[in-house]
């Protein structure tokens, strides 16, 4: 629908998708809650999958969505296991890894593979792929200890498989974690754009079933005033320091 598609015109994205030397393997999209990071992450995954189908290239795309409400289940073992499962389902992986993976699925109430085993299995499975994109959304919603463990595992995988590309999103406070594990990471700040707001409003107005309630002048005013006000509000809020309230 056009909203958020500016990401595909950014130099950071173009380098990330086209450079073969692995000099720009990671993008981190940062932004405050509600600015559209998850939407952009979905756009990126869809675009990568569509381009792979059209070009008939052996390109695979896998992803994760971290959820604050599901922190107890989203342990580092489960996160890496989810990535491994996706790799196993989308392409050929070494038979020994597949056998271990199939055996691990049979654990009911048991311990399953150890974390070190999962990391090695995932590294080996990914290394067997010609090109792989990993998209992880809402990194900030993972618990701190599992977030850094995930970044550490991704760094190790990236070092051993230079052809992989990693796309991360999260709130600004996790940027330091990302930069610690991926120095030189390309950072894209996400904020409401006037064009995105206009596209969204236009779509809503076009679906309005009460046509007589609005004339062209009112429509033009809505498309002119609301995007400008929202942009002003966002700039004001994002530039306001947030402190701890003092009780007197």
UniProtKB/TrEMBL annotation:
Query: Does the record's keyword annotation contain Repeat?
Result: yes
Name the Gene3D superfamilies on file. Answer: P-loop containing nucleotide triphosphate hydrolases (3.40.50.300)
- Write down what this protein is called: Nephrocystin 3-like N-terminal domain-containing protein
Query: Which domain of life, per UniProt?
Result: Eukaryota
Domain Nephrocystin 3-like N-terminal: residue ranges = 2-171
- SUPFAM superfamilies in UniProt: P-loop containing nucleoside triphosphate hydrolases (SSF52540)
InterPro entries (UniProt xref): NPHP3-like_N (IPR056884), P-loop_NTPase (IPR027417)
Question: What are the alphabetically sorted keywords of the record?
Answer: Repeat
């Amino acid at each position: 629908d056009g909203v958020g598609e500016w990401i595909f015109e950014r130099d950071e994205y173009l380098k990330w998708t086209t450079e073969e030397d692995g000099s720009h393997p990671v993008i981190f999209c940062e932004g405050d809650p509600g600015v559209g990071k998850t939407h952009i992450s979905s756009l990126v995954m869809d675009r990568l999958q569509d381009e792979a189908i059209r070009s008939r290239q052996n390109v695979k795309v896998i992803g994760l969505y971290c959820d604050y409400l599901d922190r107890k289940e989203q342990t580092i073992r489960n996160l890496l296991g989810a990535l491994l499962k996706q790799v196993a389902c989308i392409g050929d992986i070494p038979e020994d890894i597949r056998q271990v993976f199939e055996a691990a699925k049979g654990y009911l109430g048991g311990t399953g593979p150890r974390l070190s085993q999962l990391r090695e299995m995932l590294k080996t499975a990914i290394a067997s792929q010609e090109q792989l994109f990993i998209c992880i959304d809402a990194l900030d919603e993972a618990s701190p200890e599992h977030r850094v463990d995930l970044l550490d595992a991704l760094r190790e995988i990236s070092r051993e498989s230079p052809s992989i590309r990693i796309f991360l999103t999260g709130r600004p406070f996790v940027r330091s974690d990302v930069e610690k594990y991926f120095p030189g990471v390309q950072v894209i700040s996400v904020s409401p754009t006037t064009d995105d707001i206009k596209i969204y409003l236009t779509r809503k107005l076009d679906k309005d079933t009460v046509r007589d309630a609005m004339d062209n002048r009112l429509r033009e005013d809505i498309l002119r005033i609301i995007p400008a006000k929202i942009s002003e509000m966002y700039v004001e809020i994002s530039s306001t320091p947030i402190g701890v309230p003092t009780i007197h």
